[in-house]
Amino acid sequence: MDSNVCQVYEDEIHSLEEEIKLLAEKYEDSQQESTFFSDEEILMSIKSFQRELRGESEGYESPSDLKAHLETLETDLSFLMKFTGIQFTSHSKKTLEKTRNRTVRKHRLSGNCHSLSFQLEFQLLEMQSKANVSAVITDLSIIMEPGGDSDLSKFVSSAEERGSLLTFFRSLSSYAEWYEHRRCTFLHFK
């Protein structure tokens, strides 16, 4: 057999092994997440899902009302993306710990703001008391595309230390807008 053909088969086997490994990890994550829920919570979720399938979702008289509400939400999201310039391209979350009144989830977000790409990773600690729920962001890690301004790097480090997502997104939106204006201006003079 030709060595090139063998190499192609070996590469294919390797890629399939990697895919199996990723699927096994995903399966373990989903199994781990499902073990955090009690039988009662699972049954309530199933009943809620069945009501939605039958068009009996709370607050909506018919599937057309639900569809109209969804279209409104999509319009609002589109407006916010145009207004802020922030577009999320991916999001994943993984439950790390769940107890009766405390939940820790790990979130990963990636997206872009105007022409700047970003990736975020953080843990969200949700604590529930009798009256309310509070959430705290911990372990915030922000990755911006290379070649950024040193002031941007300082700002990102500061946002990571404080764990302030709101400040990060507000400042990123403003910075990215002006960054785009500067880039276009310099291109004009070249």
From TrEMBL:
This protein's GO CC annotations: chromosome, centromeric region; nucleus
Regions annotated as coiled coil: 6-33
Keyword hit for Coiled coil: yes
Transmembrane intervals: none
Superkingdom assignment: Eukaryota
One GO biological process term: CENP-A containing chromatin assembly
Keyword terms of this UniProt record: Coiled coil
Record-linked PANTHER family: CENTROMERE PROTEIN P
Protein name per Swiss-Prot or TrEMBL: Centromere protein P
Species the sequence originates in: Nestor notabilis (Kea)
